[in-house]
Design brief:
eight-stranded mixed sheet; 9 helices; 450 residues; five-stranded mixed sheet; 28% strand
Length: 450
């Protein structure tokens, strides 16, 4: 049930060409993908008001009651929104992978609405009454941005880069509409920063709106004829303008056809643990001594069941369909990220899982002994609603602890991981590291083995 989105480092160039090559050895008729996506979204309780007459959504009422009992109702809308954004993101990649596959004849979605009576499959951008859910992720135009008959496809090898690298990618147009896509191919790279006339980046505070940092266009008109793929060309963009970790948007256009891709560029860094912080993989005797003496501990164990006995294996996407119907799933529903926390001051992020979180999102999450305020919450399926975290801070004994279950020490080859690690170190060594939560020595020993 995990799928390639959870098993492969993200890119925008994956296809189903190999599978189609095998099919074409024996079968030459049209091939359509079926039931693409079906990523679970946590339930929107506002829909309860829409049930009348003989319809009684007993399952949704029961879920709401359990959410209330666990104290999650005040923040539940954020949970719904975070899972919905992640679902939409995963749908886009599944659909565009199909559109990049030249031998595939078409894409068939089972539906974009919830099926509350079929294993409580809350998989829709729309609710069971065929109404768009009242969240930004469910606006029809946002899904229509990528689920349409004509797409300009930028075959990005990855979404994250280090300053000084070059963004190199082939571009093609898939036109399954009735008319030509026609115009000059052009692109822009924009982000929340400003660039001076000499090309140097200035602080984002100077201009809060998105600023075009780089742009380019062809000299000749490109014509993409219906029912065909057109090789548009390639991009080769030097990313040498970044002085701080930056989230950017790459937009490409031919005529009225526009595609946009998220890009993250991180400054070069080799993170080193500060001298006033003790980094450890286990809650062992030395860690206890340091905490007893009022020290600062960065507890970053290996992401395995032995090191984290009370934990689940996490994945990038939300669950498929539901754990009620497909029980062979851990239940993790993606990350809810506290973007206001100072640990993210130098690490741009949205409140939900996005492509730059793939490495971190596919490790483990601890099941907490009781609900606590977290920095990165691992949301749980409605079937369990366990309090879980991938990053959390608390006081223990006489000291302070930051616990991360994302195993950053084993993924330092990725720029996004190095950037997050550096941001964590900066936070831990500074004055802002003042955890509000508290945990006992016994509770911590249940979360992380010695």
């Amino acid at each position: 049930m995990r799928g390639y989105l959870n098993e492969n480092y993200p890119s925008a160039d994956r296809t189903y060409d190999e599978a189609m090559a095998e099919i074409r050895k024996e079968y030459q008729k049209p091939v359509f993908s079926f039931e693409v996506g079906q990523f679970e979204v946590l339930p929107d309780f506002e829909e309860l008001e829409s049930f009348h007459g003989i319809s009684d959504p007993v399952n949704l009422k029961l879920i709401k009651k359990r959410v209330e009992e666990r104290g999650l109702l005040p923040t539940w809308e954020k949970y719904v929104e975070a899972t919905g954004e992640l679902s939409r993101l995963a749908y886009r990649e599944e659909i565009e992978a199909a559109m990049r596959t030249r031998e595939l004849s078409g894409i068939s979605l089972l539906g974009l609405q919830d099926f509350p009576g079929q294993g409580t499959a809350l998989v829709g951008m729309m609710n069971s009454h065929l109404e768009p859910k009242p969240y930004d992720f469910a606006r029809p135009e946002r899904f229509r941005e990528f689920f349409q008959e004509c797409r300009i496809l930028v075959k990005l090898p990855h979404y994250t880069y280090e300053a000084g690298e070059r963004l190199i990618a082939e571009v093609e147009a898939a036109n399954f509409g009735k008319g030509n896509i026609e115009g000059v191919f052009c692109w822009t790279l924009a982000g929340k920063m400003s660039v001076s006339e000499n090309g140097n980046c200035e602080p984002a505070e100077i201009k809060s709106k998105n600023t075009v940092i780089a742009t380019g266009e062809d000299t000749e008109i490109t014509i993409c004829r219906p029912g065909s793929y057109t090789e548009v060309g390639s991009l080769d963009i030097p990313l040498d303008f970044v002085e701080k970790n930056t989230a950017l948007t790459l937009k490409v256009r031919i005529g009225d056809s526009i595609s946009a891709y998220p890009i993250w560029v991180y400054r070069k860094t080799t993170p080193v643990c500060p001298e006033n912080v003790y980094e450890t993989r286990a809650f062992d005797v030395k860690t206890r001594e340091i905490l007893q003496n009022g020290g600062r501990v960065y507890l970053s164990p290996d992401a395995d069941k032995e090191s984290l006995p009370n934990s689940i294996k996490t994945q990038f996407t939300t669950d498929f369909w539901s754990v009620g119907t497909f029980a062979d799933q851990e239940g993790g529903m993606g990350q809810l990220i506290d973007t206001e926390h100072p640990i993210f001051k130098e690490f741009p992020t949205d409140f939900h899982t996005d492509w730059q979180w793939w490495i971190m999102a596919t490790k483990r999450a601890v099941i907490l002994p009781h609900p606590m305020k977290t920095i990165i919450t691992e949301m749980d399926s409605y079937a369990f609603l366990r309090p879980m975290a991938q990053m959390i801070e608390f006081r223990c004994l006489k000291g302070k602890v930051l616990l991360s279950t994302m195993e950053l020490h084993k993924s330092q080859q990725y720029p996004e991981v190095r950037a997050l690690q550096a941001s964590i170190y900066t936070y831990l060594s500074g004055e802002n590291f003042e955890p509000a939560e508290e945990i006992t020595e016994e509770e911590l020993s249940m979360l992380v083995r010695g």
